[in-house]
Design brief:
The strands form 6 sheets. Strands 1, 2, 5, 6, 7, 8 and 17 form a 7-stranded mixed β-sheet that branches. The model has no long low-confidence stretch (mean pLDDT about 95). The chain contains 21 helices and 23 strands. Helix 2 links the parallel strand 1 and strand 2. About 35% of the residues lie in helices and about 15% in strands. The longest helix is centred in the C-terminal third of the chain and has 26 residues.
Amino acid sequence: MIASNNIEKFLDFKFIKYDTIIIGSGAAGLNCALHLVEEGIEPSEIAIITEKLGGGTSFNAGSDKQTYYKLSIIGKQKDCPTDMAQDLYSGGAMHGDIALIEATNSIREFFHLVQLGVPFPHDKYGGYFSYKTDYDPKQRATSIGPLTSQKMCECLLRAVNEANITIFDYYYAAEIIINQSQGYKESVGLIALDIKNLSNHKDLENLIDSIKIFQSKNIILATGGPAALYKYSVYPKSQWGGMSLAIKAGCKFQNLTESQFGLASIKFRWNLSGSYQQVIPRYFSLDKNGKETEFLNQYFDSFSQLSKAIFLKGYQWPFSSDRIEANGSSLIDLAVYYETEILGNKVFLDYRNNPESYNQNELDLIAKEYLENSNALLNNPIERLKQLNRDAFELYKSHNIDLTKVPLEIAVCNQHLNGGVKGEIWWETNIKHLFAIGEINGNHGIHRPGGAALNSGQVGGLRAAQKIGNVYNNSNFLENEDFKKIVRNYLKNFIAEFKNLISNEHAELKSKEILRNIQERMTKFGSIIRPLNGLREAEQNLKSEIKNHNSMVKLDQNLEILDYLRVKDALLTQQYIFNSILNYHESYGSSRGSYLIIRDSLNPSFKEQYISPPRKLTCFKFVKSERNFKNKIQTIKSSNGRIIFKWEQIREIPKESGWFETIWKKYKDKEVFK
C-alpha cells in the first residue's frame, strides 16, 4: 500500500496546459480540432484525449450505403437552408434555430470533407448527385458506400496528424474539473487515467500514479453515444461513451427518451438497411430445439404484403411507432423483438434462399420495379444483392462472413441516441467553456433524416471552434495555485474511491456482471418497448446499485479499474434515461419515434387509445394519443441531489433575412459569435 506521506506528495501534482482539450477522436472531434486551427488556435495548444484512436462509432459504423445528409446542390431541384431546416425541425422536439444552423452550414462542412479527400461522387460537370433517404422529402443524401464515416475519419485524422495536433491515445477521461469561484460553473481542466500505465497487479500506488491532470481554457465533449447500455447494439464493441462526464459536471440534458433502433447483425455489428432488405431476404427463427420457422408469415396475409414491408424496411430502417399499422415495415422489427425477447429464439436473415412464399409475379410493384430498373430481378437474394450492391456483399466477406454459405443472426439493435447534452447555438453547454458535439449533443429530436447525424457532428465541431476562436480567444488560465486547490478536492475523492476498491476483499461481483444487469434492464424498459409496469421498481434498484457500486465490485488487477469506471458511467447514464422515460410516462406521453408506450390503463383526458398489433404481437398493445409533445423538449438536470425536469417550448425557425451592411458590421465586430 502507498504511504500517507506519498499521497500528500502526490497532491502537489504536476499538470499539462492546453488551450482546448477535445475528449473523443471520432469524426466530430477530429473535425473540431481542424476548425480550431482555422480559427487561430495554435495546433500545439490543442489536445485530443481518447481511450482508443479508431475505436469509436464513426471509425467502425456503417450500412449498405452509409448516408451523409446535406443541402441539395444538383440540377433543377429547388432547395434552400430554410427548406432543409423545416424538414429537420418537422421531426419534432428540435429547436428551429439549431435546425437552420445545421442546414445552412451543411454545404460548408460537406465541401470541407471533399477538400480533405472524401470521394463523394460527382458527375462530369462537377455536380454532386444525391438520393432520397428515410424521412427525406427531397434528394439530399449522398454516400461513398458502406464506409462513408470511416473514410471521413481517415481523411480527418490524416489532416490532424499533418497539423501536428497532440493526441493522447489510451487515456481514459475520468472527470471534468469545474470551477465555481466566479459565481457560475466553468470547466477548467480534466482528470484522466493513463491506461498504458495501469499494471496487471492490484496496487494503489500504481493506480494513483496513472492519474494525469490537464488544465485547459475550453473542453469539448465528443465521446459519442452511450454504447454500453444495450445487449443488442450496432455500436462497435470498442465504443463505450462518456455521458457521466457531463452528468457529474452539472450539464443539462434533453430528449433522453429519444433513441433510434433498427435491425442489425450481431456477430459483426452492422445495420441491415437499404440493399440488405430491398433484395427480399428470407427471415427465419430457430428455437432451443433447433426448429426453424418463417415467423413473418403469421403477420402478413400475402406475399405481396410481406415483400412490400421487407423492401420498405430498406428505406425505412429505423423502427417507427407510426409504421406498425396497415402492414407497415416496422411490424417486422416488432416480430423480431417478440421472437428474441419473449420466445428466446434466435433470428436470422438468409440470403441463400427466397422466402417460402416467394413468387416473382406477386412481388409488390414498388419492389419489382426497383429491382427491374436495377437489373437485379434475379433468382435468389444473394444474386440480387451482388447485382444491386456488390460492396454490401463484400463487406461481410471481409469480416469472414460469406453470405452465400451462412445466414446472418440478427436482432433489433440500438443505433443512436437522439437526445443528449443540451447546447446553445454554438454547442456550448450550461457550463461555460464546456461544449458537446457529435452524438453526445442532444440536438436531433424525435426522428431525423438518415445521415443527418454525420452532418450535425461536423457542423457542431465548426460552431464550437468558431466560438472558442472569436469569443474565448483572450481568456486566461486559472492561476496555478487556484487550479491546484480545486483539483486537490477531486484527487482526494478519487484516491479514497480507489483505496476502498483495492481493499474490498469481500465483494464477489465483477463489473461485467453488473453491466449485464444494466443491459437486461435497458432491453426491458428502454428499447422499442417502453412499459410503465415495473419501471419504478427497476429505477429504485438502479439507484441502489449506484449507491453501492464501489462496495459491490471485486478488483483483481488495476487494469479492471477501466471496467469499473465504464460501468459507473453506464449506471449514471441509465439513471438519467430511466428517470426521463418515467417522467414521460407520468406526463401521459404517447408512443412516438422509435418506441411504443405501454400502460395498463388509458387517460380519457388526452384521447388516448390502444393500438393492437396483429396476432401474437397483441401483447405489445400500445398507447397512441395527440399528446406526443412534438412542440416541447424535455430537459433534465441534477440540482442539490434532486433531478429536475422541465418541458421547454421549442424555438421556431428564425425568419429574419437581415441586411448585408448590418450583418457585415456585426461580423467584423464579432457580435455574431455572442
